[in-house]
Amino acid sequence: MPLPTRYPRSPMAWVTAAMLASLVVLALAGPLLWGAAADRPDPSAVLQGPSAAHPFGTDSLGRDLLARVLTATRPSLLLALAATAIGAGTGILLGASTAVVGRRTRRLLAGLINLLLAFPALLVAMFLAVVFGAGAGGATLALAVAGVPGFARLAQTLAAAVAGTDHLASARVLGLRRHRLLWRHVLPNIAEPLLLSATTAAGTSLVALSGLSFLGLGVQPPGYDWGQLLNQGLDRIYAQPLPALAPGLAILYAALTFQLLGEVLAGGVARRGPAPRAPRQPVAPSGPAEDGLVLQVEGLSVELPTPDGVIRPVRGVGLSLRPGEIVGLVGESGSGKSLTALAIADLLPERALVSHRTLRLLGADLGAMTPAQREHHLATGLAMVFQNPATALNPSLRIATQLTETVRAHRGASRAQALAEASDALRRVALPPALLRARPLQLSGGQRQRVMIASGLMVRPGLIIADEPTTALDVTVQRQITRLLSEIRRDTSAAVLFISHDVALVGEFCERVLVMYAGTIVETLPADRLATGTRHPYTRALVESVPDLTADRDRPLPTVEGALPEPLAPAPGCPFEPRCPRRRDHCAEETPPLEDLDAVHRVACWYPVAAEVVAS
Amino acid sequence: MTALQLTGLTVRHHGPRGPVAAVDGVSLEIPPGTTLGLVGESGSGKSSLARAIVGLTPVHGGRVLLDGREVRARTVGDRRRLGRLVQIVLQDPDTALDPRMTVRQTLGEAATAFHRLDRQARAERVTALLELVGLNPRFADRLPRQLSGGQRQRVAVARALAVEPGLLIADEITSALDVSVQASVLNTIRGLQRRLGLSMLFIGHNLPAVCYVSDAVAVMRHGRIVETAPTEALLRDPRHPYTRTLLASVPSLRTSLPDERPS
Q: In this predicted structure, what is the pLDDT of residue A276?
């Protein structure tokens, strides 16, 4: 659990900590310091108003009310905490056990929890308090029971998420006993939100318990808590308000403390990410435009602040696309290929810092535009297709709405015209226009990805960036999508930047391939050279590690040993040097630049692999 | 080494319009010490089949025989008997390991699921398991979030092997991994299989990866097995049209498609 002390900047955390400390000190020291005074009757000072000797006045037996309010802190808090602990404990066990019991028992428990939730908690508490008999024990127990259903439902919901994970399935297959599954695998993973809500519930219990005491169902004289004191003071509230107000304020103060504590803890959990930082990119005009390029990027870098420091996942990337060209961008996860695409599309989170020498889309300089202009230019010139078609579409909107909103917003097209264009777009991705009335859930993964592409086509983009568009799809569907992209490119002369970790797929249907490693482009080459003509040791290892249908099953597959360099502390020199079989001293000292080998082939390596002679 | 035999296995799920047969009368056989690959698209019922064998999903018809004896997973006792024989490694490296447990705790728990081990023996077992799957023993005290996806999948394999099962089911274990990481996990699986003489059911949708580790391959579609053949025979001479479609869809650097790449 993160403690408020981890967030010294939040004044709320300090206030809450001070309030909590005051309550703890009072609960510990109160009865010792003022316990005697609180119980000492004084027949000469009965029912007095506030005075110097008795700041809050005295009660019907002449006992000092200030001392009684202070002393009552301990029983009030203890009873509230006990009620919460019993209620939360029982509820959590009941709810969490639904994740580990058999199906029949689970259904039974879920039904029971639903049934219990149907009764209003406070009514149940009052009813039970009467049944159990007036008294501190009865009231606490009644409140505890009334709190069970709420915690049971919360724990049930949280545990259901854990129950669906692979690790719980594995633990079950290991034959672990149910109590072990519960204690070791379910409870620790749901403890955090439950603790937060228990903290808030303690405040509610305190108020409810005081209410029961006030009604005469809780603590009985000669015992007393704040609710009791409130009850006794209320008889003469018009004559002397303070004897009633003081215990009331005490209840309010304690309840507020628990609520604030819950808020601060929850805020701490939510804020665990890196602190936001929003330096907007300075407007910087790009270098000279090259004719006939759809996309021209030079020196693109991205910096991301993380909790451990600033990382640079993209470092000086340059790429350019001509109309009607399909270019593949290949790399492992973490190589920065998706961030490159997001940086071009201006879709990175606020805290990311993007810098570039040149960034032109369809000849227009994105770097010199205002944010509004840039947004308009990107929305009409660029289409993005993302990896997961399941989440890329809004599940509650019909396909027609999602396809037409961009053109209606950016070109001011009429509804009828936009719908006609949407049917055309669907036809182009080989879907029947009848699908316009469907919702995303009614479509298969492949259909959704086609809808995403259709949605991109609606703006007649000059560039389509497809970020792992087929990774979530089956191989046969993958083939259909890549074929579709090729056709679109041919028919509309849009350029396609196809991002993937699958070097075989990229090599098969792209014309040119850019290989990315640790934030830099290490090789660019024509796709037909991938199989045998790669020159960078990384590209070669990547290609060889792909199993082929003809792979010799008795020999191990070649692998790229080691891992991507640590992004926090990049070493000088070539980023691939630690994993490279051909490294020499020079590699660790100086980063190789991306240099031309011939007109179409560039490589960033001091000692490139010799080109193989293609056996044909 | 454990032999698996399925006869007419049927698993139904609740669909929006009544029960749907995810696995529809599947019969399969894995002779001891061999690997059967199971390929098919998502929704073809591969995972339901795997989960039914280990008792994570109820079986609605047919039989599961391990070494000729029928298995059930009704009670915890049944499940423990089953768990000694069969273990499963699942797809998602993100949730494969309990995020609150170190690698040592995870493997230690699995190693002591059926045997009592003292502290010393447990530590040795954890080290041995990590070495078995090609991980450095110093990973033992890391939490899952400090490991990469490929490393997490190796730990998951080590956890499954900790109880020394006769049959290992690998359900899409490399699907969420990069191609370069996939190769090293496949090598590990292939090595383990030879060294330990495991029987294995290797499930995936990536045909080259499945073929690389399997002695025989079964092709599944719409809950049914459409073709089963030894790997070489299946690649050389696929009989079912669907198998041919699958084979033709595999991207390959060595065979280019002239109709898709303009000159």
A: 46
Backbone torsion region of residue A299, taken as left when φ is above 0, otherwise alpha when ψ lies between -120 and 50, otherwise beta: left
Q: What is the pTM of this model?
A: 0.80
Q: Give the dihedral sign, CA B50/B55/B58/B64.
A: positive
Structure token pair of residue B154: 């190796």
| Residue among B92, B180, B253 minimizing CB distance to A559 | B180
Q: Which two tokens stand for residue A500?
A: 């993937």
Q: What is the CA radius of gyration of chain A?
A: 34
Output the DSSP codes for A267-299: HHHHTTSPPP--PPPPP---SPPPTT-SEEEEE
Cα four-point dihedral sign A177, A179, A181, A183 = negative
Angle value at C-alpha A43, between A40 and A48, nearest 5 degrees: 90
Write down the pLDDT at residue A10.
Answer: 75
- pLDDT at position A274: 46
pLDDT tens sequence across B55-88: 888 899 899 999 888 887 777 788 888 888 999 9
Query: pLDDT below 70 — which residues of chain A?
Result: 1-9, 270-288, 612-616
The answer to whether residue A166 neighbours chain B at the CB level (below 8 Å) is yes
In Å, how far are A616, B32, B96, B179, B249 from B149, measured between CA atoms? 39, 30, 10, 12, 26
More confident residue, B20 or B97: B97
Pairing assessment for the beta strands B61-66 and B4-15 based on DSSP bridges: antiparallel
Render pLDDT for B211-259 as a digit per residue (tens, 0 to 9).
999 999 999 999 999 999 999 999 999 999 999 998 988 888 765 444 4
CB–CB contact B90 A560 (8 Å)? no
Contacts of A167 in chain B (CB under 8 A): 95-98
Cβ of A563: how many Cβ atoms within 10 Å?
14
Tokens of A555: 């020999």
Residues in chain A: 616
Q: How many CB atoms lie within 10 A of CB A60?
A: 11
Q: Is residue A306 less than 8 Å (CB to CB) from chain B?
A: no
ipTM of the prediction: 0.85
Distance CA A588, CA A572 (A): 6
Report cis status (omega within 30 of 0) of the bond before A222. Answer: yes
